[in-house]
Amino acid sequence: MDDALKISRLPRPFDPDRGAEVLALLPGLEGDLPALIAGTGGTSPYLAGLIAREADWLRSSGALETPQAALAAEAARLSDIAPDQIPTELRRAKRRFALMIALCDLSGAWPLEKVTGALTDFGDLAAGLALRAALAAEIRRKKLPGMSEDDLETCCGMVLLAMGKMGAHELNYSSDIDLIALYDERRYEDVQEARPALIRATRKMAATLSDITAEGYVFRTDLRLRPDPSVTPVCVGMAAAERYYESLGRTWERAAYIKARAAVGDLAAGAEFLDDLRPFVWRRHLDYAAIQDAHAVRLAIRENKGFFGPLSLPGHDMKLGRGGIREIEFFAQFHQLIAGGRDPSLRIRPTVPALKRLAEQGWVPTETAQILSRHYRAHREVEHRIQMLNDAQTHSLPAGPEGLGRLAALMGRDEAELAADIKARLEEVHDVTEAFFAPENGGAEPAPHLEFDEEIVARWRSYPALSSGRAREIFARLRPQLLDALARAARPEEALSAFDGFLRGLPAGVQLFALFEANPHLIDLLGDIVGTAPDLALYLSRNSGVFDAVIGGRFFSDWPGLESLREELRGVIAQEDDYEARLDAARRWQKEWHFRIGVHHLRGLVPPQEAGREYAELAEAVVSALWPTVQAEFAARHGLPPGRGAVVMGMGSIGAGRLNARSDLDLIVIYDPADQETSDGARPLPARTYYARLTQALVTALSAPTAEGRLYEVDMRLRPSGNQGPVATSLPAYRDYQENHAWTWEHLALTRARVIAGPEDLAADVMAFRDGLLKRGRAPGPVLRDVAEMRARIAAARGPSSVWDVKVGPGRNQEIELMAQSGGLVAGNPEGWVGDGLRLAQESGWMTPAERDTLTETYRLLWSVGQVGKLLSDRTLDPGGIGEGGRTLLLRDTGAESIAALSERLEAATRAAAEAIDTILAREAAPEESAGDAAP
Predict the structure, then answer these.
(1) CATH T-level fold of 289-437
(2) Among 410, 483, 531, 929, which residue has the least CB neighbours within 10 Å?
(3) What is the CATH architecture of 604-774?
């Protein structure tokens, strides 16, 4: 690595005579080095003093030629220092680090990240040396039972968490360091005996770093970020700290832990503690309520510091003042808090990389991230030079004209130009961040012209969602826009009633209302939903977390496809530590995607047929990702699956790749024990029992209701022998059953069968058998006679409940699907979708083109009606009960002009389809006297 000091900018001496005096201490410098030393020494009294004290070191170490190597040698020197010399030698090292980092910064040789990183690395080194020296003294006094010098490497179970800028490797030039000292109670048999010594060591460490002596100080050390500092000692047990955060932790503490880093001591225990704290810091749902907490902190800072009124540069605080560094940090941190629970890639400590990632993931506009990043760098450079003047832990611009002149000289800038630049940056940062934390509401929006039912509106105050003062405050600001959105619905009173049901079902409101306030377009979306699909609104009230997906950056993008879904869900599951958490994570993920499909359908972004395909791919992704998760949990108790494992076969609609919003899943499980009689786990099971119970575990994972809801209802009646057969079937038994015992309807069902999860080799064998069985072909006569018999039995058991019943009855979906399956079975060329089966029926010669067209068009119409019906309700569609919005959606998807016209069209279409099926069966299924029944 090239370590030469490459000078790209220079300070100018505010006091040229003083600059010349300092330069005289280092004769013989060449190139730009004399200007660098004169400019630095002639402007910064603090740095001039450091050059005077460390001139011999500068000459002997070669620091001005290769600064990084010189500082590395200085750090190595400290490792050999006797414990009693640590305080003195750390102070000497601090002078040298401070001097060389300043020169590298002022000269432009090092960028901001390298400057703050070097300061932070020295902070880690100093804190570690100070703590180990303090602990060594306690070990020598035998105050840490069970500990020896060998335990000093891990600081006897202690860890120092670096917080704030130190945690993010962003220390400023004259920064204090924020540390939280913790100890791992598990390292001690009697932790109460060791506790006083650990506390003493922590205090000694802090004194070593922060006490001012004749040699100066190392770092001002702040231990007040620990849990409840007014009542807890300076060193806290990890278990006690975790209990505090779980029960009493506040939003500002969550924000602080974004930057937390295990810096010194038992790093493994520190990392484990931070991982355990992850649910406290990173909430599962989008946390827009944190915005108001952040704004409250900002206002408290302003109140405490008096940062109100117009911006004035003299004395302005570059960190806490209007448009300052803290505003940018808050902007990044609270966006991270909002979304980091859902998107782990946002859990980044440094500010500028965090802004970049937030933009990449779509959480903030790219231009906003670039503006704030640019100004953050500029603000930090100004801050550093303010502190370089006198080594003061200040962030305030000089109040007098001489001070601003010195600052401009140290930066090599014109004073007036610098002042204008700083002011413009501060104002732009303020405008950007204020719009996020405290958006202008412009006063209350005018109430809609429509007069709503005041009795309904009045009772909202009694709902759980509005039980807290904070919720009522946010809702009061939202109410005009909400009522306006409802007033724009096709039937406003229906929309109001549906919104009332939505609001009544919400268990709490703060988070959701805050989300609406930060994302006003969600109010319009909610208006669409409650005005069109009240049943979907009721679902939303119980699962409002799915709104998170709308602002996740990709909600309205193109459908990603099965493989992307599968990989994404596997990643979501992998992030969780235990089985139940993995299942709940899968449920939350599925609900968000399911909601997305429904909204896309509702808003006309996808047609009903496309929505059906997306629902099916979502279900397949869920089953294929959960199957190995269920198996791994089961194997932990009973061993790995015997033999070659098991596959899950999708039947019916999932096999055909078309589902609706409320479809259940027709599944069967086929396993191959491969002559292995039992599993090999701690509690082994016979192969048949193993796979039966494993299948039941899968069904439970998919269908059991939990706090996160359920995934899918599961129907396994299509397995061999139906409900009388085992829930899992061995491959030999499956083959035997299909070859020798299956009914025609079971072979018809196989035309829509697909393996959707399980080992690839076994899946290939199962599908090869299925294909071989069906590709033999059938004569149409026997198949259609069996279909006619099935059709008669179904009709006798249940007819259509109304013209809007799209599934059961003459000429409806079930009958058309039977004809399509017959097409695949007779042709020996099974295809998944109904249209393909009807095409094969025509190509086989037993269905005319006109009959195929009639059945295909009727099926498409019924499918569209059914998709809308299942999106809006779990009951048979009733146009009179779905509201004006629902009827509009129904007409849009079917292309009908009115509900009456659609009703007539349905009756005519199903009648024509029934007549076509009657004609086909009468023609093709009649018994023949010749050998025409033989398979072709």
Answers:
(1) Four Helix Bundle (Hemerythrin (Met), subunit A) (1.20.120)
(2) 929
(3) 2-Layer Sandwich (3.30)
Residue that is written with structure tokens 């039992």 in the block: 678
Please state the φ and ψ torsions of residue 221, each to the nearest 5 degrees.
Answer: -115, 125
The rounded Cα 146 to chain-centroid distance in angstroms is 43
Question: For residue 262, which phi and psi values (nearest 5 degrees)?
Answer: -75, 110
Per residue in 918-927, pLDDT (tens digit) is: 999 998 877 6
Q: Under the phi-then-psi rule, with left for phi > 0, alpha for psi from -120 to 50, and beta for the rest, what region is 706?
A: beta
Residue 601 to residue 827: CA distance in whole angstroms: 35
Give the CA angle between residues 694, 696, 701 to the nearest 5°.
95
Q: Could you tell me which residues are beta bridge partners of residue 56? A: none
- Is 780-933 a CATH 1.20.120.330 domain? yes
- pLDDT tens for residues 847-896? 999 999 999 999 999 999 999 888 887 777 888 777 777 888 889 999 99
Query: What pLDDT is attached to residue 311?
Result: 78
Contacts of 879 (CB under 8 A, 6+ apart): 804, 886, 887, 890, 899, 902, 903
CA 897 to chain centroid, in Å, comes to 43
Region of poorest pLDDT, from 157-161, 738-742, 776-780: 776-780
Q: What are phi and psi of 181, to 5 degrees?
A: -95, 125
Helix (H) or strand (E) holding 265: strand 261-265
Q: Are the CB atoms for 517 and 288 separated by under 8 Å?
A: yes
Tokens of 254: 């969550």
830 three-class SS: coil
Chain-centroid distance of CA 15 in Å reads 55
The two structure tokens encoding residue 124: 């880690």
Residue 870: which residues within 8 A CB-CB, separation 6 or more? 660, 661, 662, 663
Residues in the chain: 936
Fill in the amino acid letter for 527: G
Bridge partners, 678 (sequence order) = 686
Strand, helix or coil for residue 617: helix
Instruction: Give the pLDDT confidence score for residue 932 in this predicted structure.
Output: 39
pLDDT digits 0-9 by tens, 591-627: 888 888 988 888 888 999 999 999 999 999 999 999 9
d(CA 227, CA 221): 16
In the structure encoding, which two tokens stand for residue 386, read together? Answer: 């303010």
CB-neighbour burial class of residue 152 (10 A; exposed 0-12, middle 13-18, buried 19+): middle
Q: Give backbone dihedrals phi and psi of 225, rounded to 5 degrees, phi first.
A: -80, 0
Q: To the nearest whole percent, how much of the chain has pLDDT over 90?
A: 59
Which are the contacts of 707, defined by CB distance < 8 A and separation ≥ 6?
Answer: 584
Amino acid present at 521: H
Q: How far apart are CA 30 and CA 439, in angstroms?
A: 55
Q: How far apart are CA 893 and CA 375, in angstroms?
A: 51
**Residue 696 and residue 634: Cα distance in Å, rounded?**
11
Asked if pLDDT for residue 449 goes beyond 60, the answer is no
> Does the fold of domain 604-774 match that of domain 289-437?
no
- Max CA-CA distance within the chain? 124
Amino acid at 770: R
Within 732-811, strands assigned E span 754-757
Q: What is the mean pLDDT of residues 499-511?
A: 77
**Residue 224 to residue 68: CA distance in whole angstroms:** 33
Mean pLDDT along residues 211-226: 93
Query: How many other CB atoms are there within 10 angstroms of residue 599's CB atom?
Result: 22
Positive or negative: CA dihedral 655, 656, 657, 662: negative
In this predicted structure, the answer to whether residue 288 has a pLDDT above a threshold of 80 is no
The whole-angstrom separation of Cα 518 and Cα 478 is 10
Q: Return the domain boundaries, the chain.
A: 1-110, 289-437, 454-550, 604-774, 780-933
Q: Which token pair is 277?
A: 């704290």
Contact 10, 39 (CB under 8 A): yes
CA distance 277 to 826: 62
Contact status, residue 546 vs residue 540, Cβ threshold 8 Å: yes
